[in-house]
Amino acid sequence: MDSPTHVALISSPGMGHLFPSLELATRLSTRHHLTLTVFLVTSHSSSAENNVVAAAEATGLFTVVELPPADMSDVTDSTVVGRLAITMRRHVPALRSAISALTSRPSALIADIFSTEAFAVADEFHMAKYVFVASNAWFLALTIYAQVLDKQIVGQYVDQKEPLQIPGCEPVRPCDVVDPMLDRTESQYYEYVKMGRAIASSHGVLVNSWDELQGRTLASFKDRSLLGRVMNAPVYSIGPIVRHFGSGKDGSSELFNWLRKQPGKSVIYVSFGSGGTLSFEQMTEMAHGLELSRQRFVWVVRPPTVRSDAMFFTTGDGSEDQSEARYLPEGFLERTSEVGFLVSMWAEQTAVLGSPAVGGFFTHGGWNSSLEGITKGVPMIVWPLYAEQRMNATMLADEMGVAVRPKELPGNAVIGREEIAAMVRKIMAEEDEEGRAIRAKAMELQRSAEKACAQGGSSYENFARVVKLFGRTG
Ligand code: UDP
């Protein structure tokens, strides 16, 4: 009997990267019976991250190798994409040593979008090169096409009067561009354009979306007269891949006891991903807005900061800061003690969203969170903060109709309490046509996601197709 195909996977730090990579490894192991070695670069500063890595190792489904930390003491770049790119570049030598030490050589390397410099190692060891995009196809389209926009467009993207055209895809509004495109003078912009080129010249790209969700965009990659002009790699939509790994807290905690006592679909869950934070002013409006909405809520709170992605590299597990009273409006905790539950820093999100009491999700629109909302069939309020979240918000609200979003972009303006309360009521309670349509659409997308992953579904078939190719070395 042939021995199973051995595949290596490398993930950059950050929960939004770690979770989908580990989930992909789990699927490749359990459904496709591959042998996997998962190389992780962790931030070494997050207890939630440590718990997730330990939980992944404990499954015994694949081998986890944490690469030794690289020296970053001289790095002054504080942008998320810039730091991630440098971090992953500096881990290439450690990856090389780790792969050469393996007794069985993997036939393919699957890198996340920040790890494509590891392809140099894949070439040395004659491994095929695949990319796992833990985001959606529209984001992938922009990433690939950034190399063309870079030549076409003069000046800053955000100053353009017209939307950015991507062949065969929805245009991107200048105000929605991804963070690394906000300022073309920053080094993270060059890293981003370079990333797009590396992805386009890999052997294949796995994207966390599905044909029925983003059919037009996915088709444009195949069309030589559209994005196929710059995209040389075949794209396999294999999603939604939504995590099952916990970060150590179980379902018996105080939060879940509270949720069990609430009526069905009565609670809105408020959380801004692994890295998101609000300003002091915005937190005040959020607190008053939730109170005004008169809906039950669970809110994952973090101390206010000026930067909206302040927690990206340092997500905690709830043990760091328990004193919300310091920064929430006076009396808020007392007034809402019957209807609201505050969680400090980190909640077990997929379990919360799976609770029958939860009927809405106030999210920053990170792609993992968006998919977690979609697969649970909950309507959303999307409040984009960083990365590609502005694009996600536009897509979820304007195109897919499963969410509402604030009129102004958070970050440009403080969103007031009345608007917050109105959005919460819209998705949770209002019996107007719009609220009903959003809730119905959320259920429809949930069914579409389930169908895509079920046997014979589009993602199921695409997955099987690409897995067969992993055995062929590069
Ligand atoms: N997450 C969680 N609890 C929290 C915050 C985030 O479990 O309190 C998880 C969430 O379920 C998701 C991931 O962290 O799987 C965040 O990824 P996403 O792409 O949504 O956003 P990012 O953190 O990368 O901005």
UniProtKB/TrEMBL annotation:
The record's listing under Gene3D superfamilies reads: Glycogen Phosphorylase B
EC assignment: the record states 2.4.1.-
Judging by the UniProt lineage, the source's domain of life is Eukaryota
Q: Which InterPro entries does UniProt cross-reference here? A: UDP_glucos_trans, UDP_glycos_trans_CS
In alphabetical order, the GO MF annotations are: UDP-glycosyltransferase activity
| UniProt keyword Phosphoprotein present | no
Sorted alphabetically, the keyword list is:
Glycosyltransferase, Transferase
- CDD domains from the UniProt entry: GT1_Gtf-like
SUPFAM superfamilies in the record, alphabetically? UDP-Glycosyltransferase/glycogen phosphorylase
Q: Which residues form a coiled coil?
A: none
Hey, which pathway is this one from? Secondary metabolite biosynthesis; terpenoid biosynthesis
**Top EC group:** transferase
Q: Which family does it belong to?
A: Belongs to the UDP-glycosyltransferase family.
PANTHER family, per database record: GLYCOSYLTRANSFERASE-RELATED, UDP-GLYCOSYLTRANSFERASE 72E1
Protein name, please? Answer: Glycosyltransferase
Q: Which organism is it from?
A: Cucurbita moschata
